[in-house]
Write a structure and sequence with these properties.
Layout: H1 7-19, H2 22-29, H3 33-47, E1 52-55, E2 58-61, H4 63-91, E3 94-99, H5 101-118, E4 123-128, E5 142-146, E6 155-168, H6 170-179, H7 183-189, E7 192-195, H8 202-208, E8 219-222, H9 225-233, E9 238-242, H10 243-252, E10 256-257, E11 264-274, H11 282-309, E12 313-314
Parallel strand pairs: 3-4, 3-5, 7-8, 7-9, 11-12
Antiparallel strand pairs: 1-2, 5-11, 6-9, 6-10, 6-11
Amino acid sequence: MLNDINLNSMAYFEAVARLGQVAKAAAELGVSPSAVSQQVRAIEQQFGVKLFRREGRRLILTMEGERLYRAATQAFHTLRDARATILRQREQRQLILRVSPSFGSIWLAPRLTDFLGRHDGWDMRIDATPDLSDFQTEAVDFDLRYGTGDWAGLYVEAIIDDHVLPLCSPGYRDWLRGLTPDPLQQVSHARLIDNVKGVVRWDQWIAERDISRPADATRTLLDRSQMSLQLARDGLGLTMDSITLAYDDLMTGRLVPLDPNLGAVRFPAYWLVCPPRHTNRRVVRLFFDWIKAEAAVFEEKTAALMKDLGLTIQARPKLSE
């Protein structure tokens, strides 16, 4: 049975066998020579054999002692390797995060090359899902959430303000302008592409502007901005969407504002969310610092783009409960 083997005594024996002297083993272990001698005698009594013979001032292993020393050396080497592995895993720079799908694929993913290039020793797992993390039961460091920021009991920090406005392809805009020069009337005639998980929805936007739409007016409901933007690029209709996600499309002209005079609705939209204790992790703080710096640069670019497009900023919408 292994439970009667004293690992502390084995450590003393291994040191004496390796160094050849009780005094040297005692100095290495930080104990008295008598304590070392006592532990070695205890092992000899337990095994019923002599483990050393003396030659001058050195202790030489007997055949039984040599066999036990090889086994002890291998065992301690295995234990040290296991300890090192455990410590590396505990200290490993690993991040697990959850991100809104469209934001993750359109905004975050292209920037991760920079982050991972700065921290090439990190492991990272990213779950692109609209489901919010249950930090009590799931091993997630933090969420990059889209929403209004009302998550009680959690650390919540806004990183990007969204600017939402009616967008469409240049061809679809020209078609609507052919029907009427009034942009509000154009909305009445358009097929609306509605992101059902957006903070700003078509129904709300239309009601605030007192726009009437025919009873048989068509619209398409989607739960991903990525799909909404693609349909708008394809000329299917008019989407109420985000400059954050449509930035490249607006820069290249694949999408255009329906009318710059309609402005863009601004509100804090993307948030770092986690239990407060998670912010004490160095790897989490480093990621937070990095993404906030990226967001600041992006917001400067957004402001410049909006200026080029002639867009104004409207008041924060009346968010529904």
